[in-house]
Amino acid sequence: MKDSHRRGGAFLLHGASALALFVAAPALAQTAPSGAAAQPSTVDEIVVTGTRASLARALDVKRNTVGVVDSIAAEDIGKFPDQNVAESLQRITGVSIDRSGGEGKFITVRGFGPEFNTVLLNNRLLATENAGREFSFDILASELISGAEVYKSSDAVQQEGGIGSTVIVRTARPLDRPGYHFAGSAAGKTDSTADRTTPTFSMVASGSNEARDFGALFSLAYDERDSRATNINTGGWIAGQNLDFNGDKTIDLANVALPRTLNYTVENSHRERIGGTLALDWVVNDKLKLTADALYTQLRVNSRSNQLGYYTDPGDIISATANENGSVTHFVRSASGGLATDQIVFDSPRDAKTYQLALHARYTPDDRSVLDVDLSHSQATDQNKSVFYVIGSRNTGFNPTFDLNAGGLPTMTNVLSPTDPSRLVLHCCSERGGEVTDAVTQLNLDYRRDFEGVLQTVKVGGLATYRKKDITSLLTPDPLGCFYCGYYASMPADITSVFHAGNILGSGDMSWLDYDLAKLVAYYGSDAAISQRGNPAAEAAFRAVYSANNNSLSPQYDAQGSGSVAETSGAIYAQAEFGGYHNDHRWSAIAGLRYVYTDLTADGNSRQLLSLTPVQGDPTSATPVYSPAVPVSENTTYGYLLPSISARYNITDDIVLRGAASRTLTRPTLTNLRVAKSFDIRPPQSSSVSSGNPYLKPYLAWNADVGLDWFIGRASYASIAAFYKDVSNFVSLVTTETELFGYKFMDTRPANAQSAEVYGFEAAVQYTFDQLPAPFDGLGVSANYTKVESSIGFDPSLSSQTFNVEGLSDTANLVGFYEKGPIQFRVAYNWRDKFLRRTFGANGQPENVNAYGQYDLSGSYKVTENISVFAEAINLTNKHNRSYSIYEERLIQLEDTGRRVTVGVRATF
Asked: Burial, 494: exposed, middle or buried (Cβ in 10 Å; 0-12, 13-18, 19+)?
């Protein structure tokens, strides 16, 4: 409890700092040009433009919804509150995000991760390029979006799938703003870790005819970003180690945990995102309206990482000390050269393309009936080919020494100079890649009939969905990948050059070796390299495969890692909506029932591990032999009833009590449904076997929500809510230890294992100080806090973990803003408490994430009625991300992704 109070106090301290950054803004308004000061300052002007307009529109959604919902809205056409959709969503109560390269990518709602949240674009399921169901928000340029709603309670009309939430992202419609409109922006973006300013621009154009029965809207956005992320990581920790320092078969240090490796990494990347939308509205007559929508986005990431690594072999340690948690804080390796200084080059490319096409017809036969028919198709792909090359130098004659340096950064000392190429030898390499394709086709029918009296509306309908996820894997063919494992083949120094890494998170100035990949691959296939193996049969086998592979290590089709999951699902529903007055107090209620049926087929290829041969001179490598791949297919079906009820009662015109209860469903993430089995060979004790389980049942939850809202003004409110979820069929990765050919393997398979209760409360306040005298009437503030608990908590004292509810954490936001005349300014602080990311992370050990708080700053100045300049700073104080395993001293990764600053100009006509 004291720890919780301490974290809450830290949040308040940071929040107070954030408020201090913007209280001086009113003074700026007093110095505005006379032309700007002469602008009207009526209440109507305030609520229909900019920040206040955005907050008011979002609050209208909450006012008009019976269940529990929060939302965000664009400040103007083509102008979202943040440059990233996920980073805007994190301002919503109970929503937190995971970042990739410093940008928001996935969302978590009330502790439920991305696979538990259904993301819809204009009420249609959007395909995702990820191997699972989780949706990547970083593919969407915020300029394409007009708003987003996060529904935390469910009703029968909503598409199933979101135990955490249903998120509906919306694009603008041309007839929402009749006439002709244009908005565009151009800006330069600078990352604190890079030395180049990159361009970003966007435009939105819409128009309608004089009769206002036909309109078209087109939007386009382009964005580039260069960055240089750095991190220090250990690859996780290997637990349960018994160390024998002198080889006498007596355990000198028992049951301790060691870092798997120690890596220093610099990743240089270039991101390029392009996206566009097209929307058509046609009111055919007073009974029929037709609309069409198209979306296309592409996110391309090219990266190259240089890494200096020191891989741990427990059998080579000659002395060590551990703390009270069993974490080794210091160890010394033998001088036999068992530790190599690894010079690693790898990349993580991404080419995510997503599109959605949709047609919608609304038929209104009379004043009381509406029939909606919606047909949509979405497809997402991600194609990539990546490389991973390792060369190294054995530290023969040195006693490499590791120090955890509690409170600081881990180090490896007493090693060869990492820029010395004289002892360089080849080690391992591979090129891999593939393609993920997700295709979703939906047909949705909805019929609504309105009535007079207590029964106000009846809705019935159905949804048919076909979804198929195809994964094609590519891998360097054997025996090319590990032919040189064992550090035995010398290499020419002229392939290398010095890589200047600079200061990595306070490590001091660092350098190590880089190398020309094309020259390295050519040398791999040379007689000078191959003949050093000293095994004519192995050399002949390598030459044959290398030659057949076009004298390269290019990846080829990998049947074992390839497969597909196809889902055919159908849903029907009926819902009744009621309303009336009780003693002059308005009330509303909704009751409904949805039935969901799913037919799933998983296809893949299976192969068996036939043998493992130790690599001479390298106890951390072994050569596998597999059986030929055999096609396999599995099928399963299930169906469930999902009842729901929600109600709202107006205690006064401004104070609303609401409650909801429902049963919801989330289908298992697609990666857990695959039939393939994969092997990761990492001797002596980090090898693993993993497979999917197509017979997993969906997660099921009984949910209850209750909330009280006070609508203070047009854009001001206060709210408190409590929630409870009883979730069954939680999927747990069940890991058992097994032995194959004398090597220890951790065999992991998903299974429906547990049930858990998740509960908590949310509190939010948003207020605009309209009643203050000018210029202080432009001030506003919003704050929220979410507390989440579970009946099953993470216990670090347990030697092994079996099941935990992952991702649960408290979250909070504090935002101060000012908007008056030509000035608009906002400072935001977002905080997420520490949480458990994975029960079974690297090496089968838990992965935890430290608490994280980030400041963002944005502002704009209206030069003329149509032209404004703006600036935005993301991660203003350059906060670092840190993860660990069980105990905080067991560092997994500390990462610096930098600060982003964008400055530009915007025009509207």
From this structure: exposed
Q: CA neighbours within 13 Å on the CB side: how many for 475? A: 13
- What DSSP assignment string belongs to 396-455? TT---EEE--TTS--EEES---TT--TT-EEEEEEEEEEEEEEEEEEEEEEEEEE-SSSE
Q: What is the CA radius of gyration of the chain?
A: 29
Strands 197-208 and 181-191: antiparallel
DSSP-derived pairing of the beta strands 779-790 and 261-283:
unpaired
Contact 404, 410 (CB under 8 A): yes
Query: What are the φ and ψ backbone dihedral angles of 823, each rounded to 5 degrees?
Result: -100, 135
Indicate the burial class of 792 (C-beta count within 10 angstroms; 0-12, 13-18, 19 or more).
Answer: middle
- Which residues pair with residue 793 across a beta bridge? none
Q: Residue 297: in which H helix or E strand, if any?
A: strand 288-311
SS3 578: strand
Rounded-to-integer distance, Cα 317 and Cα 488, Å? 22
The H or E element spanning position 527 is helix 527-530
Give pLDDT, residue 68. 95
pLDDT in tens, 735-790: 778 888 888 887 888 888 789 999 999 999 999 999 999 999 999 999 999 999 99
Residue 65, helix vs strand vs coil: coil
Instruction: Report the C-alpha gap between 305 and 291 in whole angstroms.
Output: 46
Residue 879: pLDDT above 90? yes
Write the pLDDT tens digit of every residue in 255-314: 999 999 999 999 999 999 999 999 999 999 999 999 999 999 999 999 999 999 999 999
Give, in order, the Cα–Cα distances in Å from 235 to each of 345, 699, 779: 16, 31, 47
Report DSSP state, residue 799. S
Of the candidates 345, 297, 14, which has an alpha carbon nearest to the alpha carbon of residue 169?
A: 297
- Beta strands 743-768; 687-691: pairing state: parallel
Six-digit token pair at 15? 């929040």
Give the number of residues written for the chain.
909
Token pair belonging to 723: 């929630």
Going by pLDDT thresholds of 50, 70 and 90, the confidence category of residue 473 is very high
Token look-up 């070796």 returns 513
Peptide bond just before 624 cis, omega within 30 deg? no
Q: Which residues pair with 600 in a beta bridge?
A: 567, 636
Cα→Cα distances 598→568, 640, 665, 755, Å: 6, 9, 12, 22
Strand 630-650, strand 687-691: pairing: unpaired
Distance, in Å, from the CA atom of 848 to the CA atom of 843, rounded to the nearest integer, reads 14
Give the number of other Cβ atoms within 10 Å of residue 398's Cβ.
Answer: 18
User: What pLDDT sits at residue 608?
Assistant: 83
Residue 905 class from Cβ within 10 Å (0-12 exposed, 13-18 middle, 19+ buried)?
Answer: middle
DSSP 529: H
Q: Alpha-carbon torsion 515, 508, 313, 794, what sign?
A: negative
What is the edge-to-edge ordering of all strands in the sheet holding 328-333?
317-322, 328-333, 401-403, 411-413
Distance CA 606, CA 634 (A): 12
* Half-sphere exposure of residue 303: CA atoms within 13 angstroms, side-chain side: 28
Q: How far apart are the first and last CA of the chain?
A: 55
For residue 84, the tally of other CB atoms under 10 A from its CB is 23
- Distance CA(859)–CA(873), nearest Å, equals 9
In this structure, are residues 656 and 711 in contact, taking their beta carbons and an 8 Å threshold?
yes
Residue 722 burial (CB count, 10 A): 16
Buried b / exposed e along 403-430 (16+ C-beta atoms within 10 A): ebeeeebbbbeebbebeebebbbbbbbb
Q: 900 near 191, Cβ under 8 Å?
A: yes
Angle CA 326–327–332, to nearest 5: 115
d(CA 894, CA 881): 6
